[in-house]
From TrEMBL, chains A, B:
PANTHER family: AMINOTRANSFERASE, KYNURENINE_ALPHA-AMINOADIPATE AMINOTRANSFERASE, MITOCHONDRIAL. Gene3D superfamilies: Aspartate Aminotransferase, domain 1, Type I PLP-dependent aspartate aminotransferase-like (Major domain). This is PLP-dependent aminotransferase family protein. SUPFAM superfamilies: PLP-dependent transferases. GO terms for biological process: alpha-amino acid metabolic process. It comes from Comamonas koreensis. Belongs to the class-I pyridoxal-phosphate-dependent aminotransferase family. Its cofactor is pyridoxal 5'-phosphate. Keywords: Aminotransferase, Pyridoxal phosphate, Transferase. Residues 43-394 form the Aminotransferase class I/classII large domain. The lineage of its organism: Bacteria, Pseudomonadati, Pseudomonadota, Betaproteobacteria, Burkholderiales. One of its GO terms (molecular function) is pyridoxal phosphate binding.
Length: 398, 398
């Protein structure tokens, strides 16, 4: 057969992570590879009660077609969530509900990117963002980062040089970097957006997952104090990392004109996000169960993060370098090659699988200039005993 | 602010239907405008039991990230549904679950259509298909139809002339036409697909909604008897018209290479469809509740269709011409202009709203050469008394 496919497919390949995941079926393997939350943390009873309440109180709305913009009671609950995180003066009509925050990225790509347009992302960044934007024909430019996130001076230079359609950042506990963009840099980036009239997309799925102190305010929360910046800021949020990824609920906050165009595109992407999921989540939030669930997740992930950091330090010593995360789900590790030890993440990934532990090598997270000495370890899904055993296996593989 | 949007947005406008829908808030209006099923038909208790069973038996799977291809038990249930409709030898890996069948269209657009490519649709056809494909840069060509569906000779001529990337058809109780493509024509179209090596997309959300006799086999069911045709056939199915649109569940069956590319694109569109919705639907189908629900819907819609047809004949007489539907949700009406009566569907729509009844004028359903004398009436949501009253108001408006 001779189907001729769209030329946009030439810009992407199937995810390297996906290929790796096929190996994870191997029995007994300890995986630090996933980007998943721990299913044992899900508040199943809370979701059950919420789903039942939705079907009792609003069965028509929960099961019928709904507005493309989202189910109004859920939009109102999201405004409440955002207010609790310092985002004031947000109204429900300034956000739309998306089918996971992945769809928010897809809608931003669809509305903003023409073939050949440039976008800037952090190096490293979320793999699916790179691929999503490339499918719309973007040339994806990688901005340098350090342990405080993206480097503003370097970013501004790239913006001036490339005139990108948008800059995509995960400022808080980034995937895969785990790092926190400093408050000072957050302010600089908002000012830069205004100065260059360039859209900045803040992806914030992990901001709730802090361990001790809350992170600095999101770019969105901070935008009130940087005049004009709200006109150049889009913000993606998610219910996936704490409540449940299976509900597929995210949201997009953006300037009105852009948001309207995203709604138009969403009409033809999936018409609207599952109203059953939205009504369930709205009931869950209304029932006030989120704070307790969040506390439980924070405490658990904090302990696992510590266990993994301790293990890396004690068992891999000078072979690795990393910043101990203050939140999120990931440790981003650099192989130092000290004393002739393995310095290539891809090579180590293969040897690690043989030893019964899996992680994602860092290369695919870079849109340009991949640093092959990096790897991403997730501490979210394995319990402490398995984290310790997994790190021991990693040490053996090294 | 000065955001520069993607050029693909220049190909579409916000749906005319959407603008019309804003008027439907007027109190007391009887609406034949929606494409919605009747929410009163939803088996709310069945969905509740299914959701609870999903959360009891498989809470991890129902709430966690899932495979982009779909939740395996739901894929297996879909194979069962299709087998009951005469589709033999289908396996779960030959289909993927989509976020409503709208997403199947979006994925077909994303994988198949480069800017400037041509696609052929029926004139008239589903409005959101036209817009969806245009967003990917398609030039949408309209093929002529009659009371037996698309006219094969005319379609073949257009295929030869335009070399389209795909031909999109709703062969069974089409939206908006309500008509049934004849068996003979179905076979001709499959042969044509093979002869011209052209992908045919069969959208089949309404096939289950027959009133008396089942419709002819779907193109998919028929493809077993037309050698080679399966290689050029994609089929979109939906849970939205009977079980619930709010679950946002559809599926796509397509040749392996195309299906693989759709999976890759879906990864970056929404990662996967709500596993909570999928697990709920899988439990619902497993519980065997679908046949009774379907019977109830068929009986109700058959009576409403008859009431609307009778009303049109008795109250509007020679001012209208239409084919009495044998299934589906719509009557497609042509204004004849007899005895100097209104012949313009758009003008009538405005006058009808003033009289307290709404419908969608036919113009937006045409990708080319709109027939302004047409209108689409849905008989699905209003009960018989309101249908009779609505038709009386329509007569008054005329």
């Amino acid at each position: 057969m001779t189907l001729r496919f769209a030329s946009r497919l030439d810009n992407v390949e199937t995810s390297a992570i996906r290929e790796l995941f096929k190996l994870l079926g191997k029995p007994g393997i300890i995986s630090f590879a996933g980007g998943f939350p721990d299913a044992a943390m899900f508040d199943v009873e809370g979701v059950r009660e919420a789903a039942n309440a939705a079907l009792t109180e609003e069965p028509g709305a929960a099961l019928q077609y709904g507005a493309t913009e989202g189910y109004q009671p859920f939009r109102e609950q999201i405004v409440g969530l955002m207010a609790a995180k310092g985002v004031q003066s947000l109204t429900p009509d300034q956000l739309i509900v998306t089918t996971g925050s992945q769809q928010a990225l897809d809608l931003l790509g669809k509305t903003m990117i023409s073939p050949g347009d440039k976008v800037i992302v952090e190096g490293p960044t979320f793999l699916a963002t790179i691929q999503c934007f490339r499918l719309y024909g973007a040339e994806v430019i990688s901005a340098p980062t350090d342990e405080n996130g993206v480097i503003p001076e370097a970013l501004e230079q790239l913006i001036a040089e490339h005139q990108p359609k948008l800059v995509y950042l995960i400022p808080t506990f980034g995937n895969p970097s785990g790092v926190l963009l400093s408050l000072e840099r957050r302010r600089q980036i908002l000012e830069m957006a205004v100065r260059h009239q360039t859209l900045v997309v803040e992806d914030d799925p992990y901001g709730d997952l802090y361990f001790d102190a809350p992170p600095p305010p999101s770019l969105l929360a901070l935008s009130d104090s940087v005049p004009g910046s709200r006109d150049y800021l889009a913000h993606c949020g998610s219910m996936s990392k704490v409540l449940s990824p299976g509900l597929r609920l995210g949201w997009l906050i953006a300037p009105a004109e852009l948001l309207g165009k995203c709604v138009m595109c969403k009409q033809f992407s999936d018409a609207h996000t599952s109203t059953f999921s939205q009504a369930t989540a709205a009931q869950y939030l209304k029932a006030g169960r989120m704070p307790a669930t969040l506390d439980r997740v924070r405490t658990t992930y904090a302990a696992r993060s510590k266990a993994m950091g301790d293990g890396l330090r004690s068992q891999l010593g000078d072979a690795v370098r990393f910043v101990q995360p203050q939140g999120g789900m990931f440790i981003w590790v650099q192989l130092t090659g000290a004393r002739g030890q393995e310095k290539d993440g891809n090579a180590l990934a293969k040897r690690a699988i043989e030893q019964g532990v899996a992680f994602v090598p860092g290369t695919p997270f870079f849109a340009q200039n991949p640093d092959a000495s990096t790897l991403r370890l997730s501490f979210a899904t394995a319990d402490i005993a398995r984290i310790e055993e997994g790190i021991a296996r990693l040490a053996k593989a090294l």
